[in-house]
Amino acid sequence: MELAKKLLLPCGTILPNRLGKSAMSENMASKDHIPGLKFFNAYSQWAQGGTGLLISGNVMVDSQYRGEANNVVIEKGCNNHKELKSWACSCEGTESQLWIQLNHPGKQTPKFLTKVPVAPSSIPLKSPLDAMFNQPRELAHEEILDIIGRFAYAAKICKETGFHGVQIHGAHGYLISQFLSKHHNQRTDEWGGSAENRLRFVREIYKAIRHEVGPKYPIGIKMNSADFSKGGFDHEEAIHVAKTLSDLGIDLIEISGGSYEKPAMTGSPIKESTIKREAYFIEYAKEIKAKIACPIMVTGGFRTREFMEESLKKRELDIIGLARPLCINPNFSNQLLSGEDVVSEVKPLSSGIKIIDTIFPLEIIWYTMQINRMGENKKPCANASVYLAIFNTALDTGMQSLRRVRGKS
Ligand SMILES: Cc1cc2nc3c(=O)[nH]c(=O)nc-3n(C[C@H](O)[C@H](O)[C@H](O)COP(=O)(O)O)c2cc1C
Questions:
Q1: Residue 365 CB–ligand 1 contact under 6 Å
Q2: For the whole prediction, is pTM greater than 0.85?
């Protein structure tokens, strides 16, 4: 069975099988960005569930700029190393590996968290998102260097606290993909303009991390196959970025797509040919894989064992990335590996009211609620109400806004 085969990464690490949990923001750290027992509980369930590679939800490299209020942060002066060590222990007794996904949100940080976000250029998100996200200011050269240093520092701490690897979040419209995009990056200095210049930010982040962690520590990246917005980051450029990072020695490239403006990552249809097959980005990933040496993980839409096996057999990818299926069934990988013909129960979510579905990112908030259940050592609940997730989010957002008004965060 292809799914059960081990995978050797360029750095020498061996992954125990071909199943990877893709990053899902847990949003359950304390207000001081500390990952408590809930993280250990959730990741223990996933590790027991047989998935060979577990990638954490995005961990921020700057507490001033977070995607969500309760993200974990790793930065100088952040006193959470003891808790990080405990979280890193959640895979003990299993073969699973736990990597931390490192991120900076750039302009994708909501108004109630950040008054003035930062970005390569001062270009706001398009309507209707501009109602929820403030216009960013352009980063200065020294600030860009500071952020590169933050990624490297955070990776060093991940290694020291016992995590098995790190993944750079270069996808979904966050800061790194803002730098890569012609639309979001309209700088005229060495960080913008040509494809080579727009690529500089992520390349320097990779090099700085490698310098800190050494040649034997796994470093991956999640990147877009394209961002699917007019004049943005296209597929030809994605191939070039993947090839550059592969040639530099990166260990794993995970392919996804989209941004807050075009949420293709959770299956918002892109074009007819991409929805014909089970996995949203596989056609793009195949083209990337043909041109690079480093292993490829593809995430988005995998639901059946048959299709996963077929994709691996055809050498279209090396690791199957799973996110939502593991939120409602943390044991899904064990079932797949035992040869059961299981099909994930992931279904489209709707409140039944169009305007509510537009305002609330149901695919995110409903699954975050499931991760929180896992954090409380409960089993996920596939029948949980969408309205409960909406209520929790509205309450949380209200509380955060209130804190900001009172100057407490
Ligand atoms: C609740 C939730 C949180 C997510 N958070 C992240 C994240 O922190 N980083 C990331 O790269 N992708 C994130 N994603 C996207 C997933 O990693 C994945 O790309 C997407 O859900 C498609 O995979 P799936 O069809 O297997 O769910 C998130 C998705 C969900 C549902």
A1: no
A2: yes
> What's the number of domains the chain is made of?
1
Is residue 398 a part of any domain in this protein? Answer: no
Check pocket membership of 301 for ligand 1, CB cut-off 6 A.
yes
The rounded Å distance from CA 94 to ligand 1 centre is: 24
Which residues, other chains included, contact 135 with Cβ-Cβ below 8 Å and sequence gap of 6+? 107, 117, 122, 123, 124
Q: Are 3 and 312 in contact (CB under 8 A)?
A: yes
- Which domain range does residue 338 map to? 2-348
Kindly give the distance from the C-alpha atom of residue 189 to the centroid of ligand 1, in angstroms, as a whole number: 33
Question: Could you tell me if the CB of 25 is within 6 A of ligand 1?
Answer: yes
Protein residue with its CA nearest to atom 3 in ligand 1 = 24
For residue 183, tell me if it sits in a domain: yes
Cβ–ligand 1 distance for 254 under 6 Å, the answer no
Does ligand 1 lie within 6 Å of residue 329's CB atom? no
| Exposure letters 227-249 (e unless 16+ CB within 10 A, then b) | bbbeebbbbebbbbbbbbbbeee
Specify the CATH number for the domain of residue 119: 3.20.20.70
Per-residue pLDDT of the chain (409 residues; tens, 9 = 90+): 999 999 999 999 999 999 999 999 999 999 999 999 999 999 999 999 999 999 999 999 999 999 999 999 999 998 899 999 999 999 999 999 999 999 999 999 999 999 999 999 999 999 888 889 999 999 999 999 999 999 999 999 999 999 999 999 999 999 999 999 999 999 999 999 999 999 999 999 999 999 999 999 999 999 999 888 888 899 999 999 999 999 999 999 999 999 998 888 888 765 555 555 688 999 999 999 999 999 999 999 999 999 999 999 999 999 999 999 999 999 999 999 999 888 998 888 888 888 888 778 888 999 999 999 999 999 888 888 888 888 888 777 766 666 665 554 4
Is-contact 235 225, C-beta < 8 A? yes
**DSSP code of 73?**
B
Which residue minimizes the CA distance to atom 22 of ligand 1? 300
Would 401 be classed as within a structural domain?
A: no
Question: What six digits make up the tokens of 406?
Answer: 């009172």
Q: How far does residue 148's CA lie from ligand 1's centre (Å)?
A: 24
209 close to ligand 1 (CB < 6 Angstrom): no
66 close to 106: Cβ distance less than 8 angstroms: no
- Give yes or no for residue 266 CB within 6 A of ligand 1: yes
CA 323 to ligand 1 center in whole angstroms: 6
401 C-alpha to ligand 1 centroid (Å): 25
Q: Is residue 97 part of a domain?
A: yes
